[in-house]
Design a protein that fits this description.
By secondary structure, the protein is α/β, with parallel strands linked by helices. It contains 14 helices and 16 strands. Helix 4 (93-105) packs parallel to helix 11. Catalyzes the transfer of the alpha-amino group from S-adenosyl-L-methionine (SAM) to 7-keto-8-aminopelargonic acid (KAPA) to form 7,8-diaminopelargonic acid (DAPA). It is the only aminotransferase known to utilize SAM as an amino donor.
Length: 453
Amino acid sequence: MNTSPAVDALVRRDLSHLWHPCTQMHDHETVPMVPIARGDGAWLIGTDGRRYLDGISSWWTNIFGHANPRLAAALADQARTLEHVIFAGFTHEPAVALAEALVRVTPPGLERVFYADNGSAAIEVALKMSFHYWLNQGHGEKTRFIALTGSYHGETLGALSVSDVALYRKTYAPLLLTPILAPSPDAYEAEPGESAAEVARRRLGELRQLLERHAHEVCAVIVEPLVQCAGGMRMYHPDYLTGLRALCDEFKVHFIADEIAVGFGRTGTLFACEQAQVTPDFMCLSKGLTGGFLPLSAVLTTAAVYEAFYAEYSAGKAFLHSHSYTGNPLACRVALETLNIFHDEPVLARNRELAVHLAARLAPLRDHPHVADVRQTGMIAAVELVADKAARRPFTPGERRGLRVYLHGLEHGALLRPLGDIIYFMPPYVVTTQELDHLVDVAMRGIDIAVAG
């Protein structure tokens, strides 16, 4: 990439002091750092004027476009009134109105809202709340959680404890709880001739066996509904969620739905759980909640859970969790405007049209000699690159084929940040079909270059 002196200077300043997330900083001796000056709809504009189509919604957060005027106006208006106030013993209109709106749009039965400030924090709240519920009910023996193989729920220690990403668990294992892992219903792992629904049923049978052995010590089962995102965009049939709800009821354990990445229209419905017509005991929300403007998360739960904590102070049953920025008025106001956009505009209908277009454009990759799978759920699509298509043998990780696609994307005006060798598409909902065409065209050429030699 050609750069200007001003860009080079900003990069030098960055690399002199900053430590970026999910990054081996040594990579930036060869991999470019990309300074961004502003955003415009689905595009990011660099300080040098170069434009990048944001194919990953800036880590899956930006659903209505960068510098969205409605969200920006709501933020500015709120900033002139109240920027923050302690949320213990105090309240304010944006937090109350947002809670009311979330209860209206989430699955029936979720009546209470607990705010935090990011997705990992929401998972921590749900885990602690589930454990503490059982403790308050006289079941202190329930201390464990069931998670799916290949799961990812965040990078704070509790969230990592219910994640199954080998790199993280290997590094931080001495600090983590040990989950009980249930086989993922990932349709990619289907036996020959087995449908996605049949995989779901088979995996439910294996989950039943785990619950028969461990339900007495289990607080909850935690899953990412329909798509295991950071675990490789693994996708599964809604029947698994239906069966999971029934098993949790039968064995008296909680169902935690991590909709942090898949919520707010990403899978084709406002929330992924809707596709199975189930209500979890806890629903964790973040990312798209504020349209990518500000950090905020929410955990929704039932009246039954809330009532297990409601007692005289002397009973010692209060839920013990807080963040300094809990219920931040700026974030709550922007989140409320995000929900207003869903109400005022045909977002979901348009997403379904965009998803159909994206599917048609990606379809030719199914015949690519180094593509093992092309999968899609709503506005999430993924292409799995492999060294051997017939055997589904992956490339050697050290070859970093996905990185080659990323670098090609930057050279040609597209932000595509693969998960290993899985190239995925999760664009903002304001993207046009022409912009999707650009994204796919760049990705296709990048894939050809990446797998050559």
